[in-house]
Amino acid sequence: MVTVNAWTKCVNAGACTTPSRTTKIDQRYNYGHSKRHAHPVNGVTWYQARIYCKSIGGRLPTEAEWEHAARGSCGHYPGVDCKKAMPIYPWGNAAPTCKLAAMDDKSAGGDGCGTKQSSPVGQRPAGASKFGIYDLSGNLYEWVNDWYSEKYYAVSPKNDPPGPSGGSKKIYRGGAYYVGPPTDGHFLRSSSRKSLSPTTTNLYGIGFRCVREVTD
Kind of pairing, strands 206-208 and 141-147? Predict the structure, then answer.
């Protein structure tokens, strides 16, 4: 995930603007906090996230790319018959714990496993996907490129669906530090999807990551 430190460099270079919400407005926002440089940046709109990715030669992942990164494919998870059902979480089918994800765990003190905030990026290797990607479940939700359409995947291409051509809301995936078992365990699943207007600014629970095209 893109960190506060990385976003700050982009702002200093003149390619990005200050997040729409910062620590000065609400302590749940990470930008401007003296001790959260390694935390994922939040408080950015979908459009701001897209601009950042473009500034580093990348882009936001499609929803299909994001889910493949989180769920892998058959053969990635020993003991899981993914021909019947793909793994539930990036790490497999084991129930979420604070070792695996930054989440709301009442037994550990609640939101953020008791910290009441997001976590520094890349702190939970046990929760990484089989591609070695960290924080795909919990910590912060993540903007993806696609417009939201409830019925899109009933008519989309089978391989590499690019997402709908338009819409009013953008999709975000992956769960956040304030959701988790037992009440909101669904939102930590790799299949869970939610949507908001791309101009929404009340975004303490949403960050993002970028992808780059593979070249030979």
Answer: parallel
